[in-house]
Amino acid sequence: MNKYYKVLDRIIHSGRVQCNKKGEIKYLLNEQLELTPSDLLDIFETHGIARKKLKNELQLFMQGERQVEKYREAGIAWWDYCGAILVNSYPTYLERLPPLIEKINREKRSSKNYVLFLGETGAESNQAPCLSLVQFQIDEGELVISAFQRSSDANLGLPADLYHLYLMSRQIKIPLKSITLNLANVHIYKNNIEHTKELLGGNENVRFELNV
């Protein structure tokens, strides 16, 4: 069982129950997921991820594209519920990523922490980023990425964020050592629990429901 699936398993067997405006969830607080390149390969090979769509999505985020129609044209329909425009969401912050990556590649300073902040508080938003901070550090010539997530849908959001972080690492000209996610609240919605059990039981064709 890969490290991602172990998180799913812990939520099912040890998670507490809570109700919010989107429905009932089973959740864990302050989980940490530390992944080496081999761990990432294990996850990506054993878990179905919409790689092309996620790659296109990240490219649109980094371009600062806020029009939902542009995402739909790229085959990405999961933002349709937000309305016509993504307000103060991922593209608002990830458009800062290209110059940050260029700076890292130019400087490559091991004494500096390169930080991307996402989702400032107090601003109007129709989908506040669940990924709140990404930090890039260089440790003995290798890239260490640390990320903080305020909230993580373990079935849909977490695999997508993992792949986005991996794609970010590929743009930095330093060998990747690890990606660590600090998950303040990681959860499974009640309507996806049985599907999650099927996934862990070996059914790779499970489809999860989006809760909005």
Automatic annotation (TrEMBL):
It holds the Pfam family Thymidylat_synt. Residues 3-201 form the Thymidylate synthase/dCMP hydroxymethylase domain. It comes from the Bacteria. InterPro entries: Thymidate_synth/dCMP_Mease, Thymidate_synth/dCMP_Mease_dom. This is Thymidylate synthase. It comes from Prevotella melaninogenica.
